[in-house]
Design brief:
Blueprint lengths: L5 E5 L6 H11 L10 E6 L1 H11 L4 E5 L16 H7 L3 E4 L2 H6 L4 H13 L3 E6 L3 H5 L3 H12 L12 E4 L13 H19 L1 H6 L2 E4 L7 H5 L6 E4 L6 H12 L1
Parallel strand pairs: 1-2, 1-8, 2-3, 3-4, 4-5, 5-6, 6-7, 7-8
Helix pairs in contact: 1-2, 1-11, 7-8
The chain binds 1,3-dihydroxyacetonephosphate.
The site of 1,3-dihydroxyacetonephosphate has 14 residues, from strand 8.
Pathway: Carbohydrate degradation; glycolysis; D-glyceraldehyde 3-phosphate from glycerone phosphate: step 1/1; Carbohydrate biosynthesis; gluconeogenesis
GO molecular function: triose-phosphate isomerase activity
GO cellular component, one term: cytosol
């Protein structure tokens, strides 16, 4: 079955509100038709209000890079799914390896965030990936299966296809060293089999799986040509308008 590609730029901790605004103004009327590809920018919380307004009426979708799982309350410094929904944010990146490594994100919090996001009509882009140690030690299947299974716990079958899974091997993030497209596809296929184990083949065929880790305009088409890779989650190469647009072009091809 053919799944629509989804390309998401993840800006991480980059860009002031002004810079974010200028970027969105530069690309919003140039992104491909949503019949061909879903185009998404994930930006820091501070920029979201401005760029959701900037992107309104265009085919560019906006994501948050994180969300808390409670609707409100005594959680100093956090942002709730109610707030993001109210702003008109479309997607939210959940469980990025940087959040797992530096901000004590766990499989349990990732799962709560997936459930809370779906409840508030935010589409989760939930991230999985193994470390170099886990890959070299032959443990990647166990690690990935555990991350996927825990993230989907409690997600009803009819909502599972709304979840985008991003496979980002930790050793390929920001290193310039991407996985080979065959290796990435092997893991993405394994992710799909894991989802099939939870919900059945028909549902698993609908779930979109991205690859992330040193994706660039020059290599994106190789990844997208693979059977189980339906898009990319891109850090560094999404920071410049020309490069982001080139990634979208590569996904269309
Ligand atoms: O972590 C990533 C996207 O979420 C990947 O980052 P790079 O594309 O900079 O390797």
């Amino acid at each position: 079955m053919s799944r629509k590609p989804i390309i998401a730029g993840n800006w991480k901790m980059n860009k002031t509100v002004k810079e974010a605004h200028e970027f969105v103004e530069a690309v919003k009327d140039k992104v491909p038709s949503p019949e061909l590809v879903d185009s998404v920018i994930a930006a820091p919380f501070l920029a979201l209000d401005r760029i959701v307004a900037d992107a309104k009426g265009s085919d560019l979708k906006i994501a948050a890079e994180n969300v808390h799982f409670e609707n409100s309350g005594a959680y100093t410094g956090e942002v709730s799914p109610v707030m993001l929904e109210d702003l008109g944010v479309d997607y939210v990146v959940i469980g990025h390896s940087e959040r797992r490594a530096y901000f004590a994100e766990t499989d349990d919090t990732v799962n709560k965030k997936v459930l809370a996001s779906l409840e508030h009509h935010l589409l989760p882009i939930f991230c999985v990936g193994e470390s170099l140690d886990e890959r070299e030690g032959g443990r990647w299947q166990a690690v990935i299966k555990n991350q996927v299974t825990k993230a989907f716990a409690g997600v009803p079958a009819d909502q599972a296809p709304a979840v985008v899974v991003a496979y980002e091997p930790i050793w390929a993030i920001g290193t310039g060293k991407s996985a080979s497209s065959d290796d990435a596809n092997e893991v993405c296929h394994f992710i799909r089999e894991t989802v099939a184990g939870l919900y059945g083949e028909a549902t698993a065929e609908k779930v979109r799986i991205q690859y992330g880790g040193s994706v660039k305009p020059a290599n994106i088409a190789n990844f997208l040509a693979q059977s189980d890779i339906d898009g990319a989650l891109v850090g560094g190469a999404s920071l410049q308008p020309e490069s982001f647009l080139a990634l979208l072009d590569g996904a269309k091809a």
